[in-house]
Amino acid sequence: MFRFVPFLALFLHLLLPGTAEAARDRIALVMGMGDYQYLPPLQNTRNDATDMARTLERIGFDVTLSLDASTSEMTQILDDFAFHSEVAELALIYFAGHGIEVQGENFLIPVDANVTSNRDVQRQSASLKQLLAAVDRARKMRIVILDSCRDNPLGDSIALSSTSTQSSPQEDTRGGGGGMAAVDPDRGTLVAFAARDGQVALDGTGDNSPYAQALMQKMVQPNLEISLMFRQVRDIVLQKTGNLQEPHTYGSLTGVPFYLTSSTGQQLPAGTSEAWSALKPDQEE
């Protein structure tokens, strides 16, 4: 079962008897930010994070769940996860919450951030670079999934709550209204965004966001190659949102197929091929 761990004891469960083998195999950090103090609250992010943690546990991940972390807590969480990813085969981070792009860099916002300028964002948020560094030393595969909207259309005057978006009027969105800087991850790393540049990530009108729903549906599907999985997730989200939201995935994979789940519910091996092939954003549209 996945664990919701108090921040002061975060990740100590990885050191307990019976969990060391899982820590060497596949680990996941799932973060959900909803109860924002200075930004519009988000309805479904806590649901998304909790349900995603259960889904990942179901397919064999050792999962740590973090809800409504502060700036200092988020920094500590990522530092601890980076340490434990060094002995993992696969490390995955999922973030649901507000995000923003500032001066070409992407930031994920904790619940206590009070951002009124670009400098505030840079000082009080976690950058995508920090998330990538936290998974960087996993041996076979590194995955970062961002269910957030990311942009800064107002320059140095940030007002996420007043930014116009393409969303339907009854739905909350996870950030400002416009886009995210493209990324170029190292080989063996995937970065999946809930929406492409110029779009917003919808919070959804049900219990989960459209992106989280599609991810959880496809993650448990046996023998589905991971790049194909993300393309199928994209298609589902496009259909559910009436083409308002199109997920994009960036990364570099081995020439050998990689699977999250087999027909027996276990991870299939990624193989040891040294031939690497670039995965362009949704290259097989």
Task: Please give a structural write-up.
There is one protein chain. The C terminus is likely disordered. The longest helix has 15 residues. Helices cover 26% and strands 19% of the residues. By secondary structure, it is an alpha/beta fold. 46% of the residues are buried. It is globular. The chain has an eight-stranded mixed beta sheet with strand order 1-3-2-4-8-9-10-11, sandwiched between helices. A three-stranded antiparallel beta sheet has the order 5-6-7. β5 and β6 form a beta hairpin.
Could you report the average pLDDT, rounded to the nearest whole number? 79
Radius of gyration, taken over Cα atoms and rounded to an integer in Å: 18 Å
Inertia-based shape: globular
Structural domains: how many:
1
Mind summarizing the main beta sheet? 8 strands, mixed
Contiguous helical run count: 7
Helix content: 25-40%
Strands of the largest sheet, in order across it?
A: 1-3-2-4-8-9-10-11
End-to-end CA span: 37 Å
Would you give the CATH topology?
Answer: Rossmann fold
Number of strands: 11
User: Structural class given helices, strands, pairing?
Assistant: alpha/beta
CATH architectural designation: 3-Layer(aba) Sandwich
The fraction of residues in strands falls at 15-25%
The stretches of 5 or more residues where confidence is low (pLDDT under 50) are: 7-20, 150-156, 159-170, 268-285
CATH class: Alpha Beta
Taken in chain order, the helices and strands follow as EHEHEHEEEHEHEEHHEE
